[in-house]
Write a structure and sequence with these properties.
Elements: H1 2-12, E1 27-30, E2 33-36, H2 38-46, H3 61-68, H4 71-77, H5 86-103, H6 115-128, H7 138-160
Antiparallel strand pairs: 1-2
Helix pairs in contact: 2-4, 3-5, 4-5, 4-7
């Protein structure tokens, strides 16, 4: 399943960079750290399921944009990783995957500088955080979500330093 997710990421991120800098995006630069407007993230989370990609139902414009917004967006979709609707869970998973991939050096339309190393890093992080799978039973999802919550809290604290 994880290998399939990596393959989807490699092909589906082709348009991700095109949404960067879209009108209405409120980005502030504070000492080199880009802070996203919480209102934008809130709106994107509410519209996560709107206008799915015809070829990839787990991608929507909101999924793509949230994937660009980093740790705050990943944190915002954590509750959706345990949603009743499988597609909502899958879309939240795609957001988390994009955020982690970008954090590890993945660049839209280029991938990783060293694809093998990048895939190994994402695999190790994914496994360390319970190998979240939107199709897993609820208890397995919840265990992974708790691990991801810890990882995101730690990563956010590191970024704040």
């Amino acid at each position: 399943m994880f290998a399939a997710a990596l393959a989807v990421l490699a092909t589906c991120h082709r348009d991700a960079s095109e949404t960067a800098g879209a009108k209405g995006v409120n980005v502030k630069n504070d000492g080199g750290i880009q802070k996203q407007d919480d209102a934008e993230i809130e709106t994107l989370v509410k519209t996560l399921n709107d206008t799915p990609d015809v070829a990839h139902a787990d991608y929507t414009p909101s999924v793509r944009r949230l994937g660009e917004l980093g740790l705050p967006a990943a944190t915002a979709v954590l509750p959706l990783l345990d949603a009743d609707d499988r597609l909502t869970r899958a879309r939240a998973q795609r957001v988390l995957e994009q955020v982690v991939n970008r954090r590890l050096g993945w660049v839209p339309n280029r991938g990783y500088a060293d694809p093998f190393e990048g895939q190994e890093k994402i695999r190790a992080i994914w496994e360390a955080n319970g190998s979240y799978d939107s199709d897993a039973p609820p208890e397995a999802r919840r265990k992974s979500i708790a691990l991801w919550r810890q990882w995101l809290t730690k990563a956010s604290a590191e970024d704040a330093r």
